[in-house]
Fold each of these.
Amino acid sequence: MDEAGFVPNKPAERKISNPLWLNAEITFRCPLHCIYCYNPVDYARSGPELSTEDWLRVLREARELGAVQLGISGGEPLLRDDVEVMVAEAHRLGYYTNLLTSGVGLTEKRIAAFKEGGLDQIQLSFQDSTRELNDFLSSTRTFELKEKVAKLIKQYEYPMVLNVVLHRLNIDHIQAILDMAEAMGVEHLELANTQYYAWALINRDQLLPSREQLVRAEAITNQFRTRMGNKCKVYFVVPDYYATRPKACMNGWGSVFLNIAADGLALPCHEARMLPALTFPNVRDHDVRWIWHESPGFNAYRGDDWMQEPCRSCPEKTKDFGGCRCQAYMLTGDATNTDPVCDLSPKHHLITDVTAKAQTTGQPVTVHPIVFRDDKNSRKLSEKSQPETTPVG
Amino acid sequence: MSEPRIAADAVIELERQYRFQWEAAQQSHVLLYPEGMIKLSGSAGEIMKCIDGKTTAAGIVEKLEQAFPGNDLRQDVMDFLEVAHGRGWIRAKQAG
């Protein structure tokens, strides 16, 4: 979240703040098959999607708690035909509503209905500046369609917000990506380096750029930023593998962010369902107030009682909250460990071993071919992850 | 900052991507924008309430001086509008 925006909690205080951001992952279905998707790798065995009525109730309950930013995402949210209903209700309730889409399914009829209903923003994702790589990375043919959608977004007087996920295979095209953004009249450009969760973790060897690639891309981006000034706000999110301190993940656990997944599971972040020690509630069984304030899952890593050393006695724990619980679990096997991105972590070598391998030029040596995010692969990965995944609350 | 001064007869409007509203949970007026929220102080909220895309800077001062009689608010209001303009929250359309 933007630093000018929400004020992070002081984790030492046990007082629970309001959620400010509701992310509604309304479906896991997607026409794209991006190799860095952050949806759970076993999404294929998640339960049935919430109904329209369920979602409208969730919107009301979260708004009552103070949530004010709403992201409608997925999968591809436009695969549901009730987004218009949700948008209109969200607007009535006073949310600032953002639709995060690949653009597939965004017809003129639908965008007109969204405008009418009070949608505030559309964030369009592009995989790359070239048709070849865009289509390869998403395993579809969508490039030209996205160009058309970008024109529609302008035509309906939405701010043009573009998201491009950067990684080893496209980061050297940064100049072309910036040129494309300029030609499209982009006003907010988010250049988000891949974070290594879910599908991106599986494909990490193929996706992690070298430090040299990263430094070059950031320098070119900075030139663009200076040249564009206020015409285009550029956010360059560095991959945390190249940091020495962890990110303040979600501004702290259960602090401002509430994620509701397609199957109704309520989570403190996009990825938390992977944590085997925790059970998360489902909005089918509980109201949002109970979920946020009372549920064990949302309280698990609030405050700092759960921390181990070196976090526990670290003066920086109020700044970064020990980093990301999911990353700590994925890489060290224990979610209460220090995020190994931190160079004070005794397991920091788990990161540096991986980044060291990424410094070679050309294609990295990999243990397996790229795994595309699709139903078949997800079912295969579900079987593998079955014994260690949390049952749906 | 070398922002151009806002003329008294310039019409003030909110920038397109911002939305201004009262947030009960925050007990304050806020500005919402893509992926964020700015909590406004009481006086900033009162000034923003007067911005409707039709009223000039001078008109906003006048409205507020009527609402809070006995105060000379011109300088405070103009200072705030300069800051808001500098941060990209509002647009000032010159008359004529």
Amino acid sequence: MRAQRSPRAQAWLLGCAGVLVALAIWTLLAQWLATGGGVINRLPPPWRVLRDLVAYASGELWRDLLFSLRVFTIGWVLGATSATLVGLTLGRVPMLGNVLIPVIEAIRPVSSIAWVPLSIVWFGFGLTSKVFLVGLAVFLVVIVYAIDGSRRIPHDLERTATMLGMSGWQRFRALVLPGTLTEVLIGSRVALMAGWGTVIVAELVAADSGLGAHLIAVQQSYNVPAVMATMLCFALTGFLMNAAFARIEQRLMPWRHDVDRP
Amino acid sequence: MKVRDRLLLPLVGVLAVLAVWQMTVILYRLPVIVLPPPLDVALALVRLLGTHAFWRDVGTSLFEFGSGYAIGVLLGIAIGVAIGESRTFRLASTPVVESLRFIVPFAWIPLTILWFGTSYTGKIALVAYAVFFVMVISTSRSIAAVDPTLSRVGISLGMGRLQLAWNVHLRAAAPTIASAARAAAAIGWIAVVAAEYIGASAGLGLMITNAASSLATPVVIAGMIVIGLVGAGVSALIGWLARLKLDYR
């Protein structure tokens, strides 16, 4: 019986079964904990979370989401652009690279999350501090790819280009820039999740607007179903951004098969 | 690379950054609240190291991290092996794992506070969650990528399924799993700090948010340096342990 079914259909069936089992366990846990009253005595069943999600989606979700996405997009674009420029400079000018790359390596272990309190001291609770944090998070990821990409131009190609009589600018335009930008594109996708996670933390700490502020607001009124619904919004947005970017990446660089890189 | 390039130039870089920092403070007459000069930060760091409260904060954060990390790594490897070994289990669990993976650990922070309060338990659960998914995904992928020749050799030697998983697949995948464990340590450490910003009674994250709200900027920057150093130290330690155990590579 199993042999007749196509592998695709089997994957679908098993996947659906897995989801159903997970939902069943969740429901049972919710039932059991509601009467048992353990540590987690506030676990709502799935349909209550869904109901809250629908209620939120028909109300303020879009305003909050728009705000979070605006913070994210500005920060992401600024971070990726500055990382590309700095990475190209440090990667192609050996003297500067030797001096400054160790400095960047020293800053990198201090994750952008650790900058949250300082950023609030510097820029207050508004848009600027969040954009700074997201930009920093994206910068710290993309810079590695940018430096790597600008340095990893094959020597043969560079020698060939010189032999063909290309000027320095021509070599840069035709060789170094495309090589760097492909790596930057990959780095930018890896940075998506880092940047989105930073948006969450920044909005939780400096809770004035956006999805994170809503999450803190419903948390402070002990509304567990709404908390879980907001978490789902974060996850769905992250998932959609990742899927969309993977699509774009495949379009732009069809020769890259390893789109599954984390 | 010459000694000059490896030691001298980075030193020049660090000095240049410190000089620019100091000059910015002097030129723009920045108050200590906005940007303290490097020396103030160094003094604040030295003063911190002498206080009892600081070491309690470091201890709390490290304890929360260590417990959560151990739970997350062990569970993650176990489930990852199961997913890598069994096709049925892999197909059934993929949608669930993939959708949970997109709920980043930070989004769980408010819920863990509702469930566990500001105690250790919430942070331990959070770190375990963060580490678990990194480990599950890398373990299952690296097990699936083990050279099939090795499996065939194992089978022809008469190994059972469990033996094959334990003696062949897990060992072949060990280097990848070890480097994932190292990456997971950095993620788990940051999750602890972020959780402490929002609800905690002790820990480094609480320390720097408290310092920030009393505008003690030198202490904030000193705390950031400590967070970075501890994070780098933890991940170096795990890398070292892995190399110690995986000598046969």
